[in-house]
Amino acid sequence: MYGSTGSNPGALRLGFITGPKPLLDRVLLHIEASTMHTSTFTQVMVCQLLHSWGEQGFLQHIEGVIEFYRKQRDAMIRSADKWLKDVTEWHAPSAGMFLWIKLKGIRDTQKLVREKALEKEVLLVPGGEFMIDSSEPCAFVRAAFSISSPEQMDEAFRRLSLLVKEAQC
Fold it and tell me: Which of 12, 20, 25, 32 sits in a 20 to 30 Å window from 141, CA-based?
C-alpha cells in the first residue's frame, strides 16, 4: 500500500477446486490449454511441503495465515477510522486481503490514483479496473492490507485523506 510493490517473491499461490465432474473436466481443459499444465516443480514442492507438515501442520499454517490477515485487516480498519471517516465509506471485509473504499465526492478514482496518489507513494488500485467496462467511472479504490505494516497503512490513509479532501474542493 504505502511504499510497497504489492508483490511477495516468497509466496506460492495454490488453489484447489471441487465440483461436478463435467465442470472439473472443463476447468482442466482450460488449464491445459492456457498454461500447458501446472508446473511440475511447483507440484513437487507443494507435495513435499504437505508431506513434511502433515495434516496438523497444514491446519496450523492456515490458522497462522488467518490470524495474520485478521491483524492486518484490523490495523487497516483502525487507520481508516482514524483518517478516512469523513471522506470515504467502507465495510470491514470478513475474508481476503483487500479493503474496498468508496471516495465521497469523487466520481472516478482513475486519475486520482494514477497521478496524485502515486506521487504521494500511496499505492491503490482504481475500482474501475475490476469492472467489465473499465472506462466507466468508478468511485471505489482497492487497498491491500497483505504486505504493508500498520505504520505504513496509517501514513498512507493520512495521505489519502488529504488527497480526497483536495480533490473534493
Answer: 12
| CATH number belonging to the domain at 68-168, selected among 3.60.21.10, 3.90.1150.10, 3.30.530.20, 3.65.10.10 | 3.90.1150.10
Rounded Cα distance, 114 and 144, in Å: 16
What string of pLDDT tens digits covers the 169 residues of the chain? 543 334 455 566 777 889 999 999 999 888 888 877 677 888 888 899 999 999 999 999 999 999 999 999 999 999 999 999 999 999 999 988 999 999 999 999 999 999 999 999 999 999 999 999 988 999 999 999 999 999 999 999 999 999 999 998 7
- Write down the domain spans for the chain: 21-65, 68-168
**Alpha carbon distance 18, 29 (integer Å):** 15
